[in-house]
Amino acid sequence: MPGCGKSTIGKLLSEKLELDFCDVDEYIEKKEGLTIPQIFKYGESYFRKVEEISVAEISKTFPKVISTGGGVVLNSKNIDNLKENGIIIFIERPLEKIISDLDISGRPLLKEGIEKIYTLYNERIELYKKYCDIEVVNDRKIEDTIESIKNKLEGARL
Predict the structure, then answer these.
(1) Do β-strands 64-67 and 89-92 pair in parallel, antiparallel, or remain unpaired?
(2) pLDDT digit string (tens) for 25-66?
(3) Sign of torsion, CA 64 156 55 117?
(4) Which CATH superfamily groups domain 6-153?
């Protein structure tokens, strides 16, 4: 979900695991020479196609920690590419916490207002749970969430 801590947790986790880090949205912005809101002006379907191509490119370069956008689960090709060489982690964060500190500027899907987060959650929650290999809840200190991920990764394939 937007605002669950993917980028922050991903960066810190990559440092702990001594792996490279890649934020898919940053990769897309650099590749396209446009910000995410600028890309969305061409339509969400255009953005999703660029995202699909980018996820395919990024997922071939491993090992690394990849932070995706929350909508990556809407395309099964993204999931196939990410699962081919990796482990998908769903970071669940209570909606109240997301809403309390999410800056919606620069988030095209939330331009209608923060209330849209409920719609996105309801549309995506089952997909997040279906496709993840590991699920963690980010409702305490970020260091605790990272430690929880590390512990769960120890039991998973790396």
Answers:
(1) unpaired
(2) 999 999 999 999 999 999 999 999 999 999 999 999 989 999
(3) negative
(4) P-loop containing nucleotide triphosphate hydrolases (3.40.50.300)
